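Hey, I was hoping to borrow your eyes for a little while. For a while now I've been wondering how a particular protein folds. The fold is given in discrete form, as structure tokens running alongside the sequence. Could you read through the record and tell me how the tokens relate to the sequence? Take your time with it, there's no hurry, and the full record follows here:
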Amino acid sequence: LDYLQELGVTAVLMLPIYDSDYYHNYFANDFEAVDPEYGGKEGYFELLEALHQRGMKLFMDMEIHYVTERHPWYTDSYGNPHSPYSKYIIYNGPGNTEPESIIFGLTALQSYDGDVIKICTIDLGNPQVRDYLYGLFRYWVDPNGDGDFRDGIDGYRIDHIMDDLDWKGKQTNLLSDFWKPLFQQLRQQNPAVKIIGEQAEWGYGKEYFAKGDLDAVFAFPLYMAVGRFNKQDLMNKIDSTFLSTPAGKHQLVFIENHDTDRFASVVAENPGKLRVGAALNILLKGIPSIYYGQELGMKGVKQEWGPTDANDILRREAFEWYQTVDGPGMALWYRDSGPWWDLTNLRDDDGISLEEQQA
């Protein structure tokens, strides 16, 4: 946190921290538990307190459209139409044996460790599901319910938010019917709460501001234009981005994140382009957002090893604290776990580490 504060960071966005068998935690086994690898709830609240003591904010990333086969709603309702959770998950046909797929028609996804885990879609139109999820969101804003928000998070990033979930026509008008009422409740609870939406189609976000009343979206068209290095295209995207943003709303400006190739790899480590990208990231109108290690020039591109979440590991490698890969505290959870380790971008004495750059 001292290092982040030295960089001038004012808010931290963590990817999902609830219990999940996936390394990225985007598909939950249990929405209420904090992954023990992150220290459980005790560790999470310690982090939150430390951030607030520094005057920094914490945003929680939430993906609540899907659950894994290890979630209680699934384990109790699969093959059991009489389960109290039978209508929490969308099943096709009788018998509760054909759960609705997630995006791209997936019904399971292989984890980097080889474990194939089923994933299914929950029914956001079910009033009981809605009440549960609304309560979950309210909890993290004020965990002990005393009206003192110092122990609560400062806002949310809503992952994969869209009006028609996965473009299937089965769960529609979600922005106005599900998300906007939730955001209104959260603002009534704590007027300082901010909501960021990751618009699923990577557009300008006009619909999300108009129908969902989000506070901010991600400047995806601008991100794509920066990587192309076409001056006219970039100027057009800048104009279109901010003309699409109502007064009082915001665009988060970025040049890389956990779902994209690292900018240093995109520009083949060209020093001039790296500086231009950094300048645009920080100086354009909007809220600048940086991905950990971007400031060091960390590298990484997506690979293709079939339908597995391992494809993105090289975009999400351990932050390079030290000059050597074996430095103390390096988060090499994926070491020697598959072909991605053979392609790791982490190298000793390559100049891409905090230790070397601060020397």
Remarks:
- The two ends are 19 Å apart (CA to CA).
- DSSP finds twelve helices and twelve strands in the chain.
- The chain has one domain: 2-64+125-351.
